[in-house]
Specification:
This protein is 30% helix and 21% strand. It has helices at 4-11, 23-26, 54-66, 91-94, and strands at residues 15-16, 21-22, 29-34, 40-44, 74-78.
């Protein structure tokens, strides 16, 4: 059975190429759910609706999750509510030099 931790670890490997940081630390992941059939649903956002790398990031999420042993169908739900803001970043990322 696939775990939330496995999924979160895979998502932490996905980087936003503009910010050079992973999407978990940026605060783009709003939810991870795993179904009885090992399907995975990710609820996430982008820093802006006009983000030019949205397609790249979502494709990376899809590929990394599909590569996890035992994962079934992967759905990525892109949402805009709540809107992302810098307070959603991890403290480590927000205060890095």
């Amino acid at each position: 059975m696939v775990t939330v931790k496995e999924v979160a670890n895979a998502l932490a490997q996905c980087k936003d190429p503009e910010l050079d940081a992973n999407i978990v630390d940026i605060g783009l992941i709003y939810g991870i759910s795993i179904g009885q059939d090992s399907s995975v649903r990710i609820t996430m956002t982008m820093t802006s609706p006009m983000c030019p790398v949205t397609g790249i990031i979502i494709a990376d999420v899809q590929l990394r999750l599909e590569a996890i042993q035992g994962v079934g169908k992967v759905d990525v739900d892109l949402v805009w509510d709540p809107m992302w803001n810098p307070e959603m970043m991890s403290d480590e990322l927000r205060y890095r030099d």
